[in-house]
Write a structure and sequence with these properties.
Layout (H helix, E strand, L loop, with lengths): L1 H15 L5 H11 L14 H5 L10
Length: about 60
């Protein structure tokens, strides 16, 4: 049951993400920059948070 809900949540996310073509992507990159241009300390890796459904403990640095 849990896997089915995760799959359905992923499908919903994919439906809600708008599709853009290559020209639109280039325009966005020209106006806002490319995400890889951001400093590393500005990026927060949310992979585990998404993978484990918001149930991960806070890591202390």
């Amino acid at each position: 049951m849990c896997e089915v809900l995760q799959e359905e949540r992923l499908r919903l996310c994919q439906i809600l993400i708008p599709y853009i073509n290559d020209d639109e992507q280039r325009e966005l990159e020209a106006e806002f920059g490319i995400p890889s241009d951001d400093a590393e300390d500005e990026v927060i890796d949310m992979t585990d948070w998404v993978r484990y459904g918001n149930k991960i403990s806070q890591k202390s640095d």
